[in-house]
Amino acid sequence: MNANPFLLPPAEQGADRFAELQTFVQVAQLGSFSAAARQREVSPSAVSKIVARLEARLGVQLLRRSTRRLELTAEGEQLLEQGRQLLADWLALESAVTRQGQPTGVVRINASSSTGTRLLVPLVAELMQLYPGLQLDLSFTDQVVDLIAAHADIALRWGRLPSSDMVARLLGQTRQVIVASPAYLQQHGSPQLPQDLQHHVRIGWNYPRAVPHWPFVVNGEKQAISMGDVLRVNDGEAMRALVLAGAGLARLSLYHAWEELQAGRMKVMLEDFNTGILEPIHAVYVGKPGQLPARTRAVLDFLKERVDLSYAETLPPEFKAK
């Protein structure tokens, strides 16, 4: 038995176990030897040999290979999960030693299209200037993704969060409002009561988690109005564009419609019946707060400090339709 676990046996002293683990993780995440080879700038056969050497040293099969796809074995799943954390911890250690704690490495952030472009993108230049060692990998989609499956470090999520293993930091909150373009209102008129919406095109969401109604308060009682079946989308920017084009009414976050409301390109309706409920936005992540890599913690702290939605909690009177 090798008395020192950190000293390789003579036959294995030429092996780079860190590089082997990096290579395996890349193959598992990318789903192919060729994709990992391109990322590592080596040949696919070289990547295949590295993984085979790792399997031989561990004495287990990590990947099931076929002509069309790769599948992880149970042992491969375990090595991927713990290996990614090990690599992250090593990079965090390197950061602390070589850059006096300055965060370095890749931080993957997932957000909806509208949140990504309107809330996150304007902050990216400042974040990169503050932490030049960071590399950001941004993915914008209105489909809710699993952070672990998507290999995301942070996700920005609107609304109440379901119970899960994720940890959340509240970044801000915003009022929800019913909006339309002046052109639409001129042609179709303004609804005066929530029930008037049945005579208007309501632009809603088409993804499974969407709430199928708009909430109001009428004479102190809650009332739910179906958002209709005429026009539905799965992208926040597309919904905003449809409103601007005069296609119908939509229920948007005040922060999302703020620029258009300021410019008079949208108007708010039925505000007297607004529930006043504020929708929160959280930065969510998987892991314990005290055990996060320095790079992830730095981005979370930056977002907590720099995201300011206080302006979107109350509606200025001039935004209301006359």
From TrEMBL:
Keyword Calcium in annotation: no
Keywords of the record: DNA-binding, Transcription, Transcription regulation
Q: Which GO terms describe its molecular function?
A: DNA-binding transcription factor activity; sequence-specific DNA binding
Gene Ontology BP annotations: DNA-templated transcription
Q: Which PROSITE patterns match?
A: HTH_LYSR (PS50931)
Q: HTH lysR-type domain spans which residues?
A: 16-73
Which InterPro entries does the UniProt entry name for this protein? LysR-type_TF_proteobact-type (IPR058163), LysR_HTH_N (IPR000847), LysR_subst-bd (IPR005119), WH-like_DNA-bd_sf (IPR036388), WH_DNA-bd_sf (IPR036390)
User: What is the similarity comment for this entry?
Assistant: Belongs to the LysR transcriptional regulatory family.
Its recorded name reads LysR family transcriptional regulator
- List the source organism: Comamonas testosteroni
Lineage at the top is:
Bacteria, Pseudomonadati, Pseudomonadota, Betaproteobacteria, Burkholderiales
